[in-house]
Amino acid sequence: MAHILIVDDDPVVGETFARMLTLEGHRVSTVQTAEAALTSAAVDAPDALILDMRMPVVSGLDFLRQLRRDARLRETPVAIVTGDYFLNEPVLAEMRALGATVRYKPLWMDDLSALAKSLLNRE
Prior knowledge:
5 strands
């Protein structure tokens, strides 16, 4: 059973994703801030991470930069999920260079299931 960490400042989104992934047989943790995500990942390293792009204080991209500096978490598969369809190409290029997959909201059950499988198969 894979451990997936969901980082989203909207608790409804985090809990919805968690319920859907739990039905798929995954162990899921949710947090609402980048700081909580770093703490959680340090204590219980996830097999994959699903991350919101637009969060207060620390953006998803800033969090991803921090995550990649941690040797234990550098290779953790990450998907950035966003409702922002207008991310500019330099931002998208940096996310890809940092090893993140980008997906756009809304994600339905089949989309989220396929995303989790693709992240976990990259390990």
